[in-house]
User: Fold 1-alkyl-2-acetylglycerophosphocholine esterase from Schizaphis graminum.
Amino acid sequence: MFSLKSEPFLNIQQPMLFINTHTFNFPANIRSIRQYYHSKGIRKLYTLKKTTHESPTDTAFIHGYWLDLQMLKKLDAKTALNLQSSLAVQFLHSTIGAYPCA
Assistant:
């Protein structure tokens, strides 16, 4: 969730994928990501609209959405998880040539 928040800038050359939820897409978090995003190497940044930090997990399937009650219309849990998984697989395929298992 805040994996980069307190980390000093590291000169990472490996490909990096950032998938943000809507509720974590605010200036302070974007500033933390920006230094890595604009560094050398392959960088991909996505924000999934109408999602909370529980969207890319299985808790939305088990308990339903219960966090961030201000966001009235949330992306369907299955759609959110499929989007995140697809972005991750696409990133792995394009950067290291990994193919999903059949």
